[in-house]
Amino acid sequence: MEVVWTNIFYLIARYLHVVCATLLVGGTLFYEMVVPIAIQDLRSEQQLAIMGRARWVFRWIVWLAAGVILISGVVSAQRHWRVYEADGISVINRADTTQIRPPSAALRPGWWFAAHAAAGLTAVLVALTLTIGRRLPERPVLWMRMNLVVLLIVIFLAAATRHVRLLVSEKAAAIGLEQIHVE
Asked: For the residues of 116-182, what is the DSSP string, one character each?
């Protein structure tokens, strides 16, 4: 029964991670692309008032999402750490001999995870920085557009990390390894 609750816990952590990442990407996209176009016909003072109010609401979304992403990311990393630490396997089948050798850099899930975590932390820090303080930072739309690109890269790196991690697990299962061992 404990295994069931553990799996439910990991499933909820992953779900929250994906939902909060979606909130950050969608909120950033809306705040930097939809709102400016929607208010372009208003006077400058009205535009600033609306941008300020939208920023105040978006701040709570960013801070809550950032906290949940960091916590759920740590939970997910802890769950898969053994695979990241083992840094992958590569199998060579020749005749009746199976050899295990270090894989190419592209097949090391730990490297993909490190890139995902570093880019994700960068995106979260930029988003938090954009919402700190009472005044808008200089060129907020430019910063949000750059952060949107970083967030999209983070999503790609997450997909690549998961793909390589599953590939390594499948290879390990194919040659009969129950667990991936760190050498």
From this structure: HHHHHHHHHHHHHHHHSSSSPPSSHHHHHHHHHHHHHHHHHHHHHHHHHHHHHHHHHHHTT-SSPPP
Classify residue 24 by burial, with Cβ atoms within 10 Å: 0-12, 13-18, 19+. Answer: buried
pTM as predicted: 0.80
Residue bearing tokens 């793909």: 163
The string of pLDDT tens digits covering residues 97-123 is 555 555 677 788 889 999 999 999 999
Q: Are 25 and 155 in contact (CB under 8 A)?
A: yes
Instruction: Tell me which DSSP letter residue 108 carries.
Output: -
Torsion of CA 155, 17, 140, 35, to 10 degrees: 100
**pLDDT tens string 136-166:** 677 777 888 899 999 999 999 999 999 988 8
